[in-house]
Design a protein that fits this description.
159 residues; 6 strands; 23% strand; globular
């Protein structure tokens, strides 16, 4: 497998000083599956780097599933969401599936929800399956009364 490495730091979880984005293709033992790890900020300045990597991976022969792990992304702007939507189109045209893993980061999941991409692309499907399973185990009808609002706390954007 030919790796796609752009701006790869010494340690994957933190971009090197002066770097805004790191995009790395990780090996996966399952044939036809490619995992791309993104670290840093995806905005209009850095989105072309992600675009190049996802485009090269989405057009690989024998690709069945392209997984984009965004668990170390600190900011996902509109340009980044657009890149992911185009990657989904490329995958679908080739009969493959795009999966986006947010790592539970609200600053990544929120832009995907607001743009409607979560309705089209598999976003954290394993987490969604666990949530669905917990609901079915709880038994009884779904809650119809509104929940009491939580105590007001200062909101943290990703950090």
């Amino acid at each position: 497998m030919e790796p796609c490495v752009l701006h790869t730091p010494n340690h994957r979880s933190v971009p090197a000083p002066g770097q805004l984005l790191s995009v790395t293709t990780l090996p996966d033992p399952r044939p036809g599956r490619v995992v791309v790890e993104v670290v840093g900020e995806v905005d209009s300045y850095t989105a072309p780097v992600l675009e190049i990597c996802l485009q090269s991976q989405a057009t690989r022969a024998g690709l069945h599933e392209l997984v984009v792990f965004l668990g170390q992304v600190r900011f996902l702007g509109a340009a980044g969401v657009e890149v992911l939507a185009r990657a989904d189109e490329r995958c679908r045209m080739r009969g493959a599936r795009l999966v986006i893993r947010t790592g539970g980061r609200r600053c990544v999941l929120r832009p995907l929800e607001l743009t409607g991409l979560t309705a089209v692309v598999a976003v954290d499907p394993a987490d969604g399956e666990r949530t669905q399973l917990r609901r079915s185990r709880a038994g009884g009808p779904p809650r119809t009364s509104p929940r009491r609002p939580p105590a007001r706390r200062p909101r943290r954007v990703c950090g």
